[in-house]
Each structure stands twice: as structure tokens, then as C-alpha cells.
Amino acid sequence: MLKRIGLGLLVLVALLAVAALVWEPLSVTAAAPPPARSYDAQIVRDEFGVPHIYGKTDADAAYGLAYAHAEDDFSTLQEVVAMTRGRTGAMIGADGAKVDYVRALLDVPGTVSRHYAEIPADVRAVLDGYATGLNRYADKHPGEVRLSKLFPVNGQDIAAGFVLRSPFFFGLDGTIGALNDGKDAPRGTAQPMSATDTAALTPYGRDPSMNGSNAFAVSPKKMADGRTWLISNSHQPYEGGVAWYEANVHSEQGLDMAGALFPGSPFVLLGHNRNLGWTNTVNGPDLIDVYKLVLGEDKKSYRYDGKWLPLEQRTVWLPVKFGPFTVPVPKTVYRAVQGPVVVNKNGAFAIRYAAQDSVKNLEQYFRIQKAQDWSQWTQAMSLGGIPATNFIYADKTGRIAFVYNALFPQRAPGFDYRGVLPGDTSRDVWNANIGFAAMPKVVDPASGWVFNANNTPFTTAGPGSELDPKSFSPMLGIERRTTNRITRAIELLSAEKGPITPERLLAIKFDTAYSRASFAGPWIEKLLAADLKSEPDLQRAQALLRTWDWNSDGNAPADALGEAMMHMANRAAYNGEKSPDPRAKLREVVDALMKGFGRIDPPLGDVQRLQRGKVDLPANGGTDTLRAATTWEPQKDGRMRVKHGDSFIMLIAWDKAGKVESRSVQPYGAATTRPDSPHYTDQMKLFEARQFKPVHFERADVLAHAKRTYRP
Known about the structure:
Elements lengths: L1 H26 L13 E5 L5 E5 L2 H28 L2 H5 L1 H12 L2 H8 L5 H20 L14 H11 L6 H9 L32 E6 L9 E10 L7 E7 L4 E6 L8 E3 L3 E6 L6 E5 L8 E4 L2 E4 L1 E11 L2 E11 L4 E5 L2 E7 L6 H11 L3 H8 L6 E8 L4 E7 L14 E2 L18 E3 L5 E4 L31 H11 L7 H8 L10 H10 L6 H11 L12 H17 L6 H16 L6 H4 E5 L2 E4 L10 E6 L5 E15 L5 E6 L18 H5 L4 E2 L4 H6 L3 E3 L2
Parallel strand pairs: 2-5, 9-18, 21-24
Antiparallel strand pairs: 1-2, 1-27, 3-4, 3-20, 4-24, 5-6, 6-7, 7-8, 8-16, 9-15, 10-11, 12-13, 13-14, 14-15, 16-17, 17-19, 21-22, 23-24, 24-25, 25-26
Helix pairs in contact: 2-6, 2-7, 5-7, 6-7, 9-10, 14-16, 15-16
């Protein structure tokens, strides 16, 4: 009898194991491919493997872009596709399932289904062309496909990726994460803030370094060479779904862009065409409101304007990969009038956020890359689709500009929008955004320059050229943050009373110093004032810090120790929090240096490394310096692998005749996940030497440097 029971259990376990192996793909309905049509794109690879795509139509070019990107990073592109389909958990496990939950909570498929037909036909054609390019690559390389039924994809899948990822850039994932953990939602900023209030600026759970970037635009009247300069210096992870991919895309319909994009994007997101260019930095406006609902006794209804409304709810099954098995995990998602709802131990909280239930960002990205002058570009920016991010602009006429782009909610007065709002009234629920005309802008300032390092729009063009904060309502929720990068940029640019040479401009961009006027000043003071008499080794470290030149250029004995201590305090400084205990952090750093190197004064380049494949180089830059090496990944030997910071850098300049020239560099290379490619690591030495490769923009120049030309 016992043997029969045991055998039965084994059979049951075996059946469950088989079910866990097969249920997820069997539960998936394959998507319909885009409408059938022929595409013709030419891909030209230059000496660094960068793809130059040519097509008769914009859709042809998008098709070629997708295929070229898949050649270099099909693995990451599949993760993006899985994310848009709610299958990330099936591909990468529990962390992916969290993304699938957010997709369901925000009703991303519903948003796309409701509004896809509103996207103009020429934009939808580009989305379909891009999807077809991915499908073509998957068809030709079935052995690389990581999940069954992941392909074909269609234009709606591409649109869903934009809808899902866009609000992450202004912190919606942090709000959802806090509420799901039963914690208070991060406070907004839609009121004047004191210095102690700046903790509201960083979304919950985010590494502050993930919000970095620098950008500079300098007019020809300020440049010694008489050219208009634009420097794009984004800070993104070096790998993954938001790592930059460089491409040049051209069509006979007027598409003519060189720059960079994220996996899953059919558009160049920053760069230049023949006449103008732009780049972006992350900004931090208050674009999210949280409402506490008044639930009925049954917990299935909520009070709203004196009526009881049903709380919408549905169960979604999240696929979660555990080893070879994929297990379905149920999760209930809720929705109210205001938007998605998170229910936790403290109640039910509805969320409303910028660009909610909208797909307009797709058209806006497409139109700005087709714009040929300031008028067309600002007209495209007025579409109101991109919910947040600063734009730094320059063009061949010499115009430079800074635009604090944000879809500011039209909030009614009388409520504290920084906190949790009452959820039983419609008076605090906004239904429209303030338009482009009301966004803070600086155009052609007297200083001759604009910059942004994630700072407030009120410090972007130097003394005498700044916007007046009193001219903008505190209801807009504009941040007032400061960092060392911001402080140093203002100090360095403001000190340039005469024309700036290109060499000096690049020296500013690559600056590795810490200003005593930044968080570094009081932090170092605390470190040097600490009583460490009982700990001789910490005393020695303290004495070494006294010799530090406040510069992480790798040329001084104290650089590794000093930079490590900056690393320890940066998060708190960025969040506006109290700085950590100096003794405890110094102990942590000293112990790590002694364990890894047997000394407290190793060269910074021995500690901080740029590593990939067989290439291992000393990495220069600092946690919060203009030359950024912001996020470290500890290695077993005590060294720190830089995985985030200065990423894609592009120098763009127009001469007096209006001709554009550009140079660029990546931390690794064009073949982002292809270790066997010569372009997997071929830009690393350039990147660390602060040198650049040419961007071949004109077709004749491209063909002169072509290493491979083909049609997918």
C-alpha cells in the first residue's frame, strides 16, 4: 500500500513538473504579424561596426535598423519584447515578473488597444517596419530565440514598450514599489521645498546614479572656433534594456539621423540630423499623485463624489521561471477612477501619472527626428507626448536652447500634492496637462551657453541668464536639487569670461574634481573631524585624506580612498538625506582596500576598472564628477567594475557655413552582446583615453569607410 502511495506521489510530482515545463508557452497566443509588405533596406557597417541604414521609406529604414540591432544584441531585444508581452518572468525569473506585474497594473495592453488607431499612419508604418525587421531576424536565426511564441511581433508590441517604459524615467516604478512594500509613497515636489525636503526628488528604491547625465550647448559667439557645439553625455548602464545603441538612419522620405537609441526603439532618441540636434538629461518634476481610497465594508467598492463605485479588479497569472520550470503565480490588479490601485496593509491607493493612457510619445519622437529647423522642432515638441526629460538643443543657425520638458498636470489649488491625497473627491483629480508654452525654457542666453547635469531649470545658463523661479508656479513641482556635477559645471563655465576653445570645453566635460561648495565639502569636513584616536589604521586613512586634492583623476595617492568615500556619501547627498556615519564608512572602505590591495593608497586605476571579455582597463572618473563612473560592481579580487556612468558620448558641431561634423564613443563597442565580434570591445581604449571616433554622416564618407554592405 505504501509503495503504491509513494509511486502515486512520484507520478503526481512528475506530472506537475511536466506541467511547469509546458504551461507557459501553451498558455500564450501567438501575436499576429504586421500587415504583409515588402521592405528594402541597405545596411553599411563602418570600421567600428556602427550600422548605417538606408531605405526608400522611413518604414524601410526602421526595418533595417531592427535587423542591424538584432545582429548586435538580439538577446536584449528579446527581453524588451518579452516585457511588452508580459513574459519577462518566464525569461529571467522573479525580477522579470515584477515588470510583468507593472505592465498589468498599468493596463499597458489596454492603453495600446484603445489608442493605437490614433497614431498617425506614417508612424504606425515605421512601427510595423521595425517589428518586421525583428521578425525577419528571428526567422533566419531560430536557434537564438529564447522563448517559444515570442515572435512574430507587430507594431502594437513596439508601441507597448514605449508605454510601459516611459513613466519609469520619472519614477513611477518607485512609487509602485513603495506602495507594494507597504511603505509610504515618495513625496512629490509640487510646493516650495526646503533643503531638508530634497529626499522627495529621488524615486523610492532607485540608485541616484541612475538619474545622471550631462549636456552642453555653446553658441558660435562663445566658441573660439566660431562653431555651434552640442555635447551629448548621457549616463546609462553599459548593458541591458536601457543601454545606448549607436546607429545612423537615412531614408528618401527625409529621415536623416545619427545618434543613439535604446533596444526596442525604432527611432533615434538623441543625436543630430543635417540641420539640428538635441540630447537629453533626466529631470525630476512631480508628475505622480497618490490618492487614498475610502473603501466600503465589502472592500470591493470605494466612495467617490458621494457615490459608491465598484473597485475594478482582475487576476493575472505571472509566469515565474525557477530553473527549468516556469510556475504561474496569481496576482490581483485593481483600478479606480484615478488610475491603477495598489492595495496594501495601510489601505487602497490609486495612482495618477503623466501620460497615463496615452501613446502620443511615439509620434513626438518620430516628428522631432524629422524636424529640420527650430520652428518644426518646437512644433513637434508641442505634441505633448514625452512625459518628462530635459532637452538641450542646438542647430546650424547658431541657436542653442534648454527645454525643461514635462507634462505638468493641471492641478487644482487647495490640496497638498506632495502627500497622499483624498481619494473620495474629483476636485483633486486632474485631467489635462500644461502645454509646451508653459514649460521652462532658455533660448539663446546672453552667456552663450546652456548646460544640464540633472539640475533645476533655474541654474542652466549662468548668472544673468537664468530663469526666475518666481515666474513659475510651485504647483509645477520643479525640483531644486544640486550635485557636485551641477556645482562644478556652473563654476567652470561661469569662469570662462572670453571665448571657449574646443579643448577647454572638453576639459570641462571630462572634469574629475569635487567642489568644496558641493556635498563633498561638509562630508570631507566630517571625515577629517572624526575622533579616531582608538583606531590607528583609520587615523592613517584620515591623514591620507587630508592630503587629497579633491580630484579623482588617478594622479594622487589619496584618489582611491577619496573617491571611495565620495561613493559612500553620494546616495544620501542626492536624496537630501543626512550623511552617513563617517567613522563607519571609513572603516568599510579601509577594510575593503586592505583586503583587496593590502594598502589604503592603491592607484585609483587599480581599483576602478572598465572590464569586458579579455579587456581590462583602468577606469577614470568619479561618482559625481562630470567625467562620471557612478556605479561599481565589486569583484572577487577587490577591484570595482564600472557598469554605469559616462556611456554614449557625442560631440556635434556646425561650422559657419552650416555644415555638421560629429564624433562619438561608447564604453564597449557596437556589438553589445556578441563576444566573438571584433566590435565587442573595440571602443574601450578610446573611451578610457577620452578620445572619439568619427561619425560618418554623409553617404560618400560612409561608403569610403564601409567594411560590409548588405540587404537583410
